[in-house]
Write a structure and sequence with these properties.
alpha+beta; 114 residues; globular; 7 strands
Length: 114
Amino acid sequence: MQPLLKVYGHIYPADSALEGDLQNALSSAIADEISSDVPLLCRDKDMLRISFEGRYFPEEDVLAALEQHLTDSQQGKLDVLDLEAWRLRRYFIAHGEIQSRSASLNNVLDYSGF
């Protein structure tokens, strides 16, 4: 079965409090069996990375956790590819804010040259 959602993102600099809250927010995610051995959240020095493929991603909980810990110095993004609705929601993290945009995956693929 193909995953319904693919989510990839990163944020830096990230402290242990943000990491803990993101772990809690991600605890209800329902990943595919194939990707279950890949951690949903991993640390790379002062960067946290999210990598997910599956049926359910707690998007609102993750955004709430991010908003709780936002600082002016943090940067990052979160891409949520909804393969069922064929949409991309991209969240930009910068200057203490989270902004979002949404587009059809057809538009994204055309723009990227695929």
